[in-house]
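Protocol step 4 of 6: structure prediction from sequence.
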Amino acid sequence: MRQCLTAPDGGYYTTNRAGRDQFGQRGDFVTSPEISQIFGELLGLWLTAEWHVQGRKAHGVEIIESISNFKTLVSSVEDIYLVEASPWLRATQKELLCGDCPFQEVPIGHRSISKYAGLPITWCEDIRFIPNKPDKTPFIFAHEFFDALPIHAFQSVPPSKTSSQTPSSPTGEISLKAPSPEASKPQWRELLVTSTVPSSLITSTSQSKEPKADFQLSLARASNPSSLLLPSQSQRYKALLPVAGSVIEISPESHSYAAEFARRIGGSTKPNPSRSSALPPAPHKTEPSGAALILDYGPSSSIPTSTLRGIRSHQLVSPFTSPGEVDLSADVDFTALAEAALSASEKVEVHGPVEQADFLGQMGIHDRASQLMRTLDKKGGTRIEVGASGQIQVEERKKTIKEAAERLISRLPGRGMGTLYKALAIVPERGGRKPVGFGGDV
């Protein structure tokens, strides 16, 4: 997944193909901020509410991957960081946010100045490059971020007398002097991406115009380091091991990011095994502060299984066809993110996941949509200016506002964004008091 999405040459997000954009109606998918301006406004409101709950800190506020337009909060913001691996998307964001301001190279990435608030904006490829200072209050926003991180897939196989006794490793197979005692027990085997049989050797009567997949998932012949380690780290996975044929998906990189969010908010006295030795150790944080808001799609409590998918032109396609030209994603394991965050820092709480419809409903999506429509009515007339596109009917604009808001909270079975998408919050420990949007208030 990482290679197909972010490889420097030919990666889906890192390659700017002439005449083609991944986003929007003409691209491969549409995200919530593009559907309605209300989505971004309510997320900014959530961050502002958390800032109020935590005492309205006057200095040291950082916003990571999000920009708020609330003046009271912006007056306390010192740094804005955007985590973006794509060079051409960074350039697009810079043009939108900073205009003609210089785009300077800095040790962790690039920096410019916002043309809206005069604040410094720094782009980097990984949140772990951002300095982690104990006196900072980071507000972290991750929207449709975790679904694009690489996964491992494993399948439970029953014990077999003929099962291989030569576990594989990156350097080859390992010969065992004696049969492993694990051979008599169910085992996890990794589902590996392998090349398909050359199409010239396949006789097919299919009339489908879809290109044949270049790759496929194949069950490993023996255990490997990933299958021995990753499923052993949670009781949730261990409980499924005796059920032959069970398939689970695990994203270690997702766990690492959730843990990093928690450490930046709550601090930690525990060592960070995922942090590169080239990076300085995280300093001790005496007062937990900040918050992280994660919005993505996946089950509320169950383990994702067989969810790797390809998306092209708003349609689901094989993830093994046209590498680098198809968006890849997998469902997010929200319970695993919560476990990783709570294990990383003793001073944080996790709330959610809650369905996006409930989150946006509590944040006031209906009230905001009504307010926007009343504003149009107060302007009078039957037409309004919409920039270069000319004029449109007021009633048509009001209908668009209403339908866009309803789309974000739709509960249509199997495809409604209001139920498919979930929200999860990581906040400083405070006795279980719920954040706004998760059943709490300011």
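Step 5 (inspection) to follow. The chain has a mean pLDDT of 83.
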